[in-house]
Amino acid sequence: MTISTRGAAKAPAVLVLEDGRAFRGRAYGAVGETFGEAVFSTGMTGYQETLTDPSYHRQVVVMTAPHVGNTGVNDEDPESKRIWVAGYVVRDPARVSSNWRSQRSLDEELVSQGVVGISGIDTRALTRHLRERGAMRVGIFSGNALADDGTLLAKVRQTPEMSGADLSAEVATKEAYVVPAIGTKKFTVAAVDLGIKGMTPHRMAERGIEVHVLPATATLEEVYAVKPDGVFFSNGPGDPSTADHPVSVMQGVLERKTPLFGICFGNQILGRALGFGTYKLKYGHRGINQPVQDRSTGKVEVTAHNHGFAVDAPLDKVSDTAYGRAEVSHVCLNDQVVEGLQLLDRPAFSVQYHPEAAAGPHDAAYLFDRFVSLMEGQRA
Q: pLDDT of 311-334, one tens digit each?
């Protein structure tokens, strides 16, 4: 990525997909070039949380909502310490941000963090193209990075694909840290950071859990060194088929029968630990309005998603695994993708979506209470 922080408002820009289609607009944020996987997010709000979600590492995010940046940027809503998206695509950026919590404009934030973006393109047409053709490699070019389309297309096609990418260690914490319980401490949880969002340990802390956030490279011995009542595996970027180390650690947790909870990438890790495969979705689920059914209750939840891979597990039967019986607990009502797993003979479950809901609806907040119940049951 090469960037400049000057002249973004007037600079022409072009977005080039790996299949050769190009969209022309204006630079938004930093000027230069950037590459990644083109994906779209259907959320109408929460752009600050989206930008700072580590699961978007090496992805260029297309916002389907036409107006972005209306409420500016503040220092309270980020889900991590930096913007992780590789590039940003919007139709109509706000000319003036207006919100009592706003501290600066979104454009200023993108410039200060060197995020190359593009505005003024038909994001509806781009989204339809990605739905039909699938997520693919893309480049955004502006300023001195502009060249003829053939040259730019060749650059895009030289970049790595998301399939086979091992990325969690690139976004995870390098040093362990502790998020203290709010109020009386009831439990200790070891959280393996594969790209964790800041709201996740906060949701656990609200329930009296002291959360020890550990690097993605943490060993089973390091997990149990904190004497956890439960173990959590977070969301994160990349291809789960490459995550052999987290799978091995999770299998050790399952062997010890410690209560276990995983979300998003953690759901895919549980799937692999149980012997199921994973696969890449055509264009993934990203946004805060995805319908999921909890099959144990029949309840339908509106949920927040960010994933391009899924678990390949049977929907119509209970499966026998090395750790007892397992079943699909949640399913997406749009396409029948596996959205949750649970073990019937050990205290372990996971979901493919984001119950911390930052940003997003709170329908799935009960899952943190379910994790607490598992720990209470184990202690009893």
A: 999 999 999 999 999 999 999 999
